[in-house]
Amino acid sequence: MQPAQDGDEALPGGAVMTEVIAFILDGREVTAAPGETIWQVASRLGHEIPHLCWQPYPDYRA
Questions:
Q1: Could you tell me where the DSSP H helices lie in the chain?
Q2: What is the residue extent of each domain of the chain?
Q3: CA–CA separation, 62 vs 53, rounded Å?
Q4: Using CA atoms, how far apart are residues 24 and 46, in angstroms rounded to an integer?
Q5: Residue 3 host element (H or E)
Q6: Residue 15 DSSP code
Q7: Contacts of 50 (CB under 8 A, 6+ apart)
Q8: In tens digits, what is the pLDDT along the chain, a chain of 62 residues?
Q9: Residues 6+ apart with CB under 8 A from 2
């Protein structure tokens, strides 16, 4: 997150959203694009998360 600029919509603490989201996954800092899920990031980086059903289609329901 970056410091808020005049006219930006600030989050608590004065930060604003950026194009990527950084978080810690298995002790390593990783980034996600807007709209990318934690599961998708983990899969992209080679982490296997057990799951029953998932398909990469919009509005997919299991």
A1: 38-44
A2: 1-62
A3: 6
A4: 15
A5: strand 2-3
A6: E
A7: none
A8: 455 455 555 566 766 666 899 999 999 999 999 889 999 999 999 998 887 777 777 887 76
A9: 15, 16, 18
The Cα-based distances of 18 to 11, 28, 32 in angstroms read 11, 20, 11
Distance (Å, rounded) from C-alpha 34 to C-alpha 42?
Answer: 15
Determine the pLDDT at residue 57: 79
Residue 39 near residue 52, CB atoms below 8 Å = no
Whether the full predicted model's pTM is greater than 0.85, yes or no, is no
b/e for 14-43, b at 16 or more Cβ within 10 A?
eeeeeeebeeeeeeeebebeeeeeeeebbe
Q: Residue 30's beta-bridge partner residues?
A: 23
